[in-house]
Specification:
Length: 336
């Protein structure tokens, strides 16, 4: 009887080991079958990034066979470099930078629009009485040197009310955007709608805001998902999978923003949840395209913005604007 029980025990152990090995093997196979990719953000995690963390948490990337890593750049200017070189598969960047890069032969392409309208604005304290560009005459204007095209944007806004850069004093405020305004070092400062505007208001300051597209600057896409031409030509399936997961995440988040913020807070506990929730209220309407197709890019919008850049001698007159963006991946995602 003992021999029989011993034999049964050995058999059970062997079966358990075999089944366990098969289980581990299956798990390892599942993990190894995922394609590792990276997305480099434009800067620190913000409310408009939250749907990406939600998509990751819900397994949308894994559903498409992708194991994604979100990277925060040490410097935003490096995003184009790492995406163009292939160090990062995808990135978040700006249309002016994309067009400037392509003008210099850097093969980056926008494959989806995230923020549909400009965020760049100029803010003033409410009690200053400065509410329009022509009120800026003789005033000190703070510009962060890290953002290209800022003087051109200010120039266009002033020109829209028959003024010029000669009528104002420009001050380089570096990264001290909000302190320079509330400390009255400047009378007006360039801000991002939904970021510094929310920060100022959350600190109890009443402000006036002048948005770029309301004064002479063409409407343009603020933020884009980009990749490089080689990725598109040699591995379009990977790009389709990425955009499919991203679209799914944002479509869900537009209806469930709190879940998206919760997902970002879970992975990035250092973010200020209340502040990001206020920002999300601003960004949500700006993510929705007029045709209802998330991420879609209108050709005319690109052409108008490129024409503005050409008029300001920021890019060459003969740059092929249509090659700077590709709607095929967004279109494909919408069919699924």
């Amino acid at each position: 009887m003992r021999k029989k029980l011993g034999f049964i025990f050995i058999v059970l152990v062997v079966v358990g080991v075999v089944l366990g090995a098969k289980f581990v093997s299956k798990e390892e196979k599942t993990a190894s079958s995922l394609t590792k990719i990276s997305l480099v953000l434009d800067w620190q995690p913000s409310a408009y990034h939250a749907p990406l963390f939600l998509a990751k948490e819900k397994g949308y990337f894994k559903d498409n066979g992708l194991d994604i890593e979100f990277r925060i750049p040490s410097d935003p200017v490096t995003v184009l470099q790492t995406v163009a070189s292939g160090k990062d598969d995808f990135g978040l960047n700006y249309p002016a930078d994309v067009l400037t890069a392509r003008d210099k032969g850097v093969p980056v392409v926008s494959i989806m629009a995230l923020i549909q309208h400009p965020l760049i604005s100029f803010a003033t304290l409410k009690d200053s009485g400065i509410a329009e560009p022509n009120d800026l005459v003789g005033k000190k204007i703070g510009l962060p040197a890290v953002i290209p095209t800022t003087e051109n944007i200010l120039s266009s806004m002033l020109k829209a009310q028959e003024k010029s850069l000669e009528d104002v004093q420009i001050i380089d405020v570096g990264y001290d955007v909000v302190p320079s305004l509330i400390g009255e070092k400047v009378d007006a400062v360039l801000v991002y709608w939904g970021t510094e505007t929310v920060l100022l208001e959350s600190q109890g300051f009443s402000i006036n805001t002048m948005r770029a597209q309301d004064y002479g600057v063409p409407d343009y896409y603020e933020l884009l998902f980009i990749t490089n031409e080689e990725k598109i030509s040699k591995n379009p399936t990977l790009v389709h999978k990425f955009i499919g997961a991203v679209s799914r995440g944002y479509e869900y988040a537009l209806k469930n923003p709190k879940e998206a913020l919760d997902a970002m807070k879970k992975e990035k506990p250092e973010v200020d949840y209340d502040f990001q929730a206020r920002s999300m209220d601003v960004y949500l309407p700006l993510m929705k395209p007029p045709n209802g197709l998330f991420g879609w890019q209108e050709e005319q919008k690109w052409v108008d913005f490129a024409d503005w850049m050409k008029e300001n001698d920021l890019i060459s007159k003969d740059l092929d604007v249509k090659a700077a963006f590709d709607n095929s991946f967004v279109e494909n995602a919408a069919k699924k």
